[in-house]
Write a structure and sequence with these properties.
Blueprint (H helix, E strand, L loop, with lengths): L10 H16 L6 H7 L5 H11 L5 H15 L4 E10 L9 E4 L6 E14 L2 E10 L2 H5 L1 H7 L10 H14 L8 E4 L6 H10 L4 E5 L4 E4 L6 E3 H6 L4 E9 L5 E9 L3 E2 L15 E5 L9 E5 L6 H5 L4 H15 L10 H19 L21
Helix pairs in contact: 1-2, 1-12, 2-3, 4-12, 7-8
């Protein structure tokens, strides 16, 4: 923690950061400044000092997150970068970024903040190392409200895919961070093609799950425009593979994976024609029982075996467990302030608390949630 908090230049900032982190780790229930101060038997003024540290103190969260990411990468053996969306329910309309949105988990429209988290996957854990707050068009144009929430002028309203590209660009800008595949679930992304194109421009390896209607261009003397679902329906256009995995009973089971025999290209966003700069492979996991739909991935890792391509997909199950732990144990839903810097300060502290708990040598070394087992590739 001393290393991760070293970018905080003032001694009182580091002191209150340690107090806040202890509260995130040990306080049960809502983790607010008042409850943290009360649980630590601190003086009455401590709650105000903690509130000040999160909401008003002018410390820069980006160096802290960069130090956190470097520490995680140096301590564990990471195998993938991935992202996850987090909806944070909010009452009222004054908290920064709050807007009405459909919650895919419940099917209900909720008033919430929408966050995109960047995670570094290793073993059964996905460590959060960066965050982005999605602003809708109202927040992009309401300058009085932006001023009250201290939203930087450069922070604009843009789709979630734009935030993913920005997070990836931040990783590329730090050469000490590992060059790993980006494993993303783009099945509900409105701009899946834009995300793939943005990651390709950054020369990043990708393994991205897409919906069956995602459009690709086939190569060869008679190229065609086709969806990945239609492409993989062609019996003679796919090759079967089997990936052995250990079953829960100790035996071995084989996960069937089909691959397209050729390579595909993606449409350019400006012309709709095939982008000639990059080629991809298409992989399919057929429905195991005939009732659930097949799943599809597009990967830029064209020179690797099927098993190597699909291995990092296990991060998707791990990141879901990490998000659950962040919600239930580390207080990411409990930020009480209204400002943009305050939100980022709180999310930075929650990420540091997660790392303290689960990095090797920390107080916990098991899965992030009771009953969570190591995720299998293509699970």
């Amino acid at each position: 923690m001393e290393e991760i908090l070293s970018p905080l230049r003032r001694a009182e900032q580091r002191h209150w950061a340690r107090v806040y982190l202890r509260g995130l780790l040990h306080v049960t229930g809502r983790k607010t400044p008042r409850r943290i101060a009360r649980a630590g038997a601190l003086p009455p003024t401590a709650a105000q000092a903690l509130h000040q540290f999160i909401n008003a103190s002018p410390w820069d969260w980006e160096p802290v997150r960069r130090t956190l990411a470097l520490r995680v990468a140096a301590t564990v053996t990471p195998y993938a970068w991935t992202v996850a969306e987090l909806l944070i329910p909010k009452r009222g309309e004054h908290s920064v970024g709050v807007h009405r949105r459909l919650d895919p988990a419940t099917g209900h429209t909720v008033s919430c903040q929408r966050a995109i988290g960047l995670f570094l996957a290793s073993g059964v854990h996905c460590f959060p190392v960066d965050w982005s707050l999605v602003l809708d068009e109202d927040w992009g144009q309401d300058w009085p409200r932006r001023l009250r929430a201290r939203v930087p002028e450069a922070e604009t309203a843009r789709p979630a895919g734009g935030h993913v590209r920005d997070l990836a660009a931040g990783v590329v800008a730090e050469p000490r961070l590992p060059d790993l595949p980006w494993v993303l679930d783009l099945t509900r992304c409105d701009d899946a093609g834009g995300v793939l194109a943005g990651l390709a421009r950054l020369r990043l390896g990708t393994v991205c799950e897409v919906g069956p209607r995602h459009v690709v261009f086939t190569e060869g003397p008679f190229p065609s425009v086709i969806t990945v679902g239609e492409l993989m329906d062609g019996r003679y256009a796919r090759q079967p593979h089997g990936i052995p995995r250990q079953a829960a009973d100790g035996g071995t089971r084989v996960i069937p994976i089909h691959t397209y025999v050729g390579r595909v290209r993606l449409p350019r966003r400006d012309t709709g024609r095939a982008d000639g700069s990059f080629t991809y492979r298409v992989l399919q996991r057929p429905a195991p029982d005939g009732r659930r739909p097949a799943r599809y991935w597009i990967s830029s890792l064209t020179d690797r075996s099927v098993e190597d391509v699909m291995a990092p997909v296990r991060s998707r199950a791990a990141v879901r467990a990490a998000v659950t732990a962040l919600r239930e144990r580390f207080g990411v839903l409990d930020f009480e302030g209204r400002s943009f810097p305050g939100w980022h300060h709180h999310m930075t502290m929650a990420s540091a608390a997660y790392a303290f708990r689960y990095l090797p040598g920390g107080p916990a070394s098991g899965p992030v949630a009771p009953g969570t087992a190591p995720a299998e590739a293509a699970s």
